[in-house]
Structure formats: structure tokens, C-alpha cells
């Protein structure tokens, strides 16, 4: 860090298993990637080239090299996996992973319904050649699963070999884990967090209020994803209690007694009852 400041929570170091920031790149130019990495690389753990943007991105190999040289792994969005599966081209998908030397990949069923044992079989097969991020939750706002279903699917996908399970929210943060307003489905999240180890889950949380929610619920080293490139540094300050929203969360009792905290900056942790 640039200067000494006490009462800042300890962040895990790279390569991390918890405290991951997954960035969604939905078509940055190579120059934009270089710019983003020049300022935010220490805080980026993994990058997703959103949905099937890798299909149309020019100079894809050159772009991937920029990430590789910075030591940041890249994977292609789950929608691309689904685009191959729905066309009965899974074998071609495997060739794509080889062609681009990808060490991570996503398995999702957000756009199509894949029988769950079939989805798990894809995870198991892919896990022999890459780290698999499997996504749970639909992109269809009408499709609401009970919490026990989310938990069953997440557990089965981890058992099938997924490295992490992702909670769906899309780029907008308005489906899956969240209501259409962006409000967190707190009961759902609460049940998931009690059943699945926190370090195994990546919560898609593109909106600031959603990032704040998860930092308050899980702590500074929560895994979050679908972070926009220009939100990486702001997110890091939220994790560290250095933005108003989490300002009081990591201060000592002594510091908190000295000055009254604004309601906005309350250190209140979110609890099960909310
Ligand atoms: O599910 C996602 O987070 C994304 C992006 S969006 O839903 O198309 O906005 O899809 P993915 O295919 O995993 O990148």
C-alpha cells in the first residue's frame, strides 16, 4: 500500500483461494487491457471474457497474451460453453480451450436447461484439463429455484470437480441472487453461506451495494465477480473499510468510541435475521 494506515483488514495474497476479484471484460481493446492492468493488476485475480465475446474479439491471441504476461488467468464466459453444447459441438469447445491454451473454463446452464447430471458430467470431463468454474442460477428472471436446490446443485458441482461455484447475477446484477431491483435475495444467500464453504463460492455482484453486502456478510476476503474494469479499485477500498459504506466495519472499539459513526458508515454486520 502507498502509506501506513492502521486498522485495515488483512487481505489474502495472490494466488488466492478466497478474496478473489473476478473482472468481466466484455470487449476491452488491447490498449484498454494494458491500461486496466497498469493500475489494477494487483487486485485482479481472474478475468472472464463475457459470454461469447471471445468469438468476435479481434486479435484474441494477442489480447490473451497481455493477460498471461501479467499473470492473470482468463476464461471464456459460460454462455460460450452453452453455445457449443446446444449445437452439439462440445468436442469443438475442447479444441477451443486447447487452441487458446486456457487453464480455466466456465460451465453454466443460464440460457439452456441441461439435465443436472449431464452438467456435472461436463464439469468432471473438463476438470481433467482445466480449473472449472461452474455457474448456478438461470438468466431467466422468472426461473426461481428454492435455496435447497441451489445448495444441492452447488454441492453436486463441487463434487463433480468444479474449482469454484458462481452464483448467477448477470452483468446487471438483477437475476439469480438478486431481485430485478438489484436487491439481494437475503434468505437465499444466507442459506447458501451456511451450507457451502465461503471460499468455494464466487458471488456475481456487479453493483456497489451488492459488493458492500457481501463484504459485510462474509468479510474483506469474499470472492466476488462480474466486476467492471473501472470498479476494481473502488471494490478494493470497500473490502478494506476505506469507503463510507464499510468505513466502520474494521475499526477498533476504541476508534469507534471516539467518534460517532454516520449511520451510512455503520459497522453493523448483516445477520441471519435480516
Ligand atoms: O452470466 C454471466 O454473468 C455472464 C454475463 S451476462 O449474463 O451475459 O450478462 O454470462 P457469461 O456467459 O458467464 O459470461
UniProtKB/TrEMBL annotation:
Gene3D superfamilies: Aldolase class I
Gene Ontology molecular function terms on file: phosphosulfolactate synthase activity
Keyword terms, alphabetized: Lyase
Protein name: Phosphosulfolactate synthase
Family in the record: Belongs to the phosphosulfolactate synthase family.
EC number: 4.4.1.19
Pfam families listed in its UniProt record: ComA (PF02679)
Organism of origin: Emticicia soli
Taxonomic lineage: Bacteria, Pseudomonadati, Bacteroidota, Cytophagia, Cytophagales
Amino acid at each position: 500500500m502507498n502509506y501506513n494506515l492502521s486498522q485495515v483488514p488483512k487481505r489474502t495474497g495472490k494466488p488466492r483461494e478466497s478474496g478473489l476479484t473476478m473482472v468481466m471484460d466484455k470487449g476491452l481493446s488491447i490498449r484498454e487491457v494494458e491500461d486496466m492492468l497498469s493500475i489494477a493488476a494487483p487486485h485482479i485475480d481472474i478475468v472472464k471474457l463475457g459470454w461469447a465475446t471471445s468469438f468476435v474479439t479481434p486479435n484474441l491471441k494477442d489480447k490473451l497474451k497481455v493477460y498471461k504476461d501479467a499473470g492473470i488467468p482468463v476464461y471464456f464466459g459460460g454462455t460460450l460453453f452453452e453455445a457449443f453444447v446446444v449445437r452439439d459441438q462440445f468436442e469443438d469447445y475442447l479444441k477451443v480451450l486447447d487452441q487458446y491454451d486456457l487453464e480455466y473454463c466456465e460451465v453454466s446452464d443460464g440460457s439452456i436447461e441441461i439435465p443436472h447430471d449431464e452438467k456435472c458430467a461436463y464439469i468432471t470431463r473438463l476438470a481433467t484439463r482445466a480449473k472449472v468454474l461452474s455457474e448456478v442460477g438461470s438468466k431467466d428472471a422468472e426461473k426461481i429455484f428454492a435455496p435447497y436446490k441451489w445448495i444441492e446443485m452447488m454441492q453436486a458441482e463441487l463434487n463433480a470437480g468444479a474449482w469454484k461455484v458462481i452464483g448467477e447475477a448477470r452483468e446487471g446484477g438483477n437475476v439469480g441472487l438478486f431481485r430485478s431491483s438489484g436487491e439481494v435475495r437475503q434468505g437465499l444467500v444466507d442459506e447458501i453461506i451456511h451450507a457451502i464453504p465461503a471460499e468455494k463460492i464466487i458471488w456475481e455482484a456487479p453493483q456497489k451495494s451488492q459488493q458492500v453486502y457481501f463484504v459485510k456478510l462474509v468479510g474483506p476476503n469474499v470472492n466476488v465477480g462480474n466486476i467492471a474494469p473501472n470498479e476494481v479499485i473502488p471494490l478494493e477500498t470497500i473490502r478494506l473499510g476505506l469507503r463510507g459504506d464499510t468505513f466502520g466495519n474494521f475499526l477498533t472499539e476504541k476508534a469507534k468510541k471516539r467518534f460517532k459513526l454516520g449511520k451510512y458508515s455503520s459497522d453493523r454486520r448483516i445477520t441471519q435475521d435480516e
